[in-house]
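Hi everyone,

Forwarding the result from last night's run.
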Amino acid sequence: MEEVYEFLKKCGTFYIATIDGDKPRVRSFGVVNIFEGKLYIQTGKSKNVSKQMQINPNVEICSFIDGRWIRLEGKVVRDDRREAKASMLDANPELKSMYSADDDNTEVLYFESAKATFCSFTEAPRVVEF
């Protein structure tokens, strides 16, 4: 999991796919965190992406850097604890101008049953599960 976290942090921007009814939706994300041994992402509860993940928590992330890419698939689980939100905001202080650990909008979600596939054009794919 640490390797997945480091890859996504290095990329800076990654893309998350959700389902909206019967249509795929993809948007950019930019923050991850490890809290209590779990990989977290963050968004706002008022956003459509949040609503889509609550209906269908199966998501996939894709990102590319330096000739390598990652596909991370799994189920995300909302964590409404203040401690989880505060950890995300402390690890990504640029979010503090938009979110607070005490507001009703900040949402952090961790990956459950995740599978990351690291790929490149020169190496065989490698899978990490957590």
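Residues 2-11 form the longest helix (10 residues).

Cheers,
N.
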